[in-house]
Amino acid sequence: MNKSIFGLVAMVTIFFVSCGSDDTTTPENSNPSEVTLKTIENNPSTNYSFEWTAATDADGDIIVYDFYVNDKVVASDLTETQYSLLISSLDGVAYPFNVKVIAKDGKEGSSTSNQISIADPIIGKWNTFSQPDSSGEIIEVTGCKRMSLLEFKLNGTYDSTPYLEDQGECIVDGASSAKWKYVENGLYEFDAEGIKINVLVAFETDKLIIRPESDPSEILTYIKAN
Question: Phi first, then psi: what are they for 144, rounded to 5°?
């Protein structure tokens, strides 16, 4: 009887020891380190270029990146730390919009970068640079006309302040205010007391180029005011 009990105890002990030796703990997965996102190039008529610091992973996992616009993935599983966002790919996206990057390790570990807000590039002050003359030829303005100013504001309004020369002095020639809004793909709407006009807008370095949609040959060019 004692031998039987002893044998049973021994078998139970061996069973638990054996089971215990197979009980391994899976190491907890580490998230990739956070990355810092920044803008490296602005060409509002064509693209915005971004880069970010490379994420590191304590577990040695391979890191890939997803690029987001307004919390929607527009590029996934990127292996490089740069991305060029084409304006033509932003159908249905209005200014301002937000971008960010999420680093992933393929094991459900992730980290999110800082968020960058892209404001409409038309916002700001612009001096008249060139416009059509009476014959339709595009000429660069000089003198007081060069002081003429368009100021586009965040609240969707803009001020127009034209200047002319009067007895050797530059004076304001009928300032006015109106509304503006971005429509899509370089198309804007200007609204002056209910009179609406659609214009095509392009940006070249420090210049703003405006063409009425109804007559694209009528080109008005403005330069960024200091």
Answer: -65, -30
